[in-house]
TrEMBL record:
This is ABC transporter ATP-binding protein. Belongs to the ABC transporter superfamily. It holds the Pfam family ABC_tran. Keywords: ATP-binding, Nucleotide-binding, Transport. It comes from the Bacteria. The lineage of its organism: Bacteria, Pseudomonadati, Bacteroidota, Cytophagia, Cytophagales. It comes from Hymenobacter jeongseonensis. InterPro entries: AAA+_ATPase, ABC_transporter-like_ATP-bd, ABC_transporter-like_CS, P-loop_NTPase.
Amino acid sequence: MALTITNLSKTYANGVQALKDVNLTIPTGMFGLLGPNGAGKSSLMRTIATLQDADSGSIMLDELDVLKDKDGVRRVLGYLPQEFGVYPRVSAEELLDHLAVLKGIGNSKQRKEIVESLLQQTNLWNARKKNLGGYSGGMKQRFGIAQALLGNPKLIIVDEPTAGLDPAERNRFHNLLSEIGEHIIIILSTHIVSDVTDLCRNMAIISQGQVRLTGDPLTVVEQLRGQVWRKLVDKDEVAGLQAEHHVISSRLFAGKTIVHVLSDSRPDGTFEEVNPDLEDVYFAQIAERKSAVLA
Ligand SMILES: Nc1ncnc2c1ncn2[C@@H]1O[C@H](COP(=O)(O)OP(=O)(O)OP(=O)(O)O)[C@@H](O)[C@H]1O
């Protein structure tokens, strides 16, 4: 099974072009769609989830035409949107049961079994009678996955699921996602690089509505080997370095600043080579865009 996106474009009524000729092939397993705020991730996710139309292009889930056969897509889709609202005065068990009815699971005995098993799977069984208004952010997100799993979806979309979760909740959420299975397509849209590093076998980086890079994380990281260099400097030296080098990131460390620079060879003897990681890949793509915009 594969989701194939071809020449997809979308401009909103206010003139913002959120998607520019997007081409992507997404195989089964967990796929990371990584990009900064405003990159177009949610626009793409909402289009795949049949919640908004594109101006041009096509999306196919194998033989299923996603942009035309919306009912067909909805039957096989599980969606956890960026803003997942819950009814605060309803328990998890009640709301999941209600959503199961809406999904077309009419047989009450079967529904009870499904609801129970999803509450177990998402580790919410002990909190099933509790009103959702009293759930923590992590519990709400796990509930979001429980509802997305209703009806055995073949395609699951989770939009920015770990933003705002503390490390323990994020870890729990990761474990849950990684257990869902290899045989369906799960698209994880995020601006958090380590979500993709930890979970995804394939990925794409999107910025300003365009796909900048696709591949598997290990390979794209390996392609950057020998090109990333670092230097520990005082904060007031950073601007000078930026003027002279292709700085892809700078972050504070013990009161100093670690600067990562992209260069085919060691810029000078004061730089040391970095073992690149996915953050370097990401920042290299994003920084290129920034310099392209500034130029
Ligand atoms: N309904 C809309 N009408 C007009 N512009 C929109 C609309 N939705 C999104 N945009 C704009 O389209 C661009 C892409 O937004 P989108 O929400 O798809 O990005 P994103 O990568 O999901 O970012 P974020 O994580 O901030 O939601 C942004 O410039 C945004 O302001």
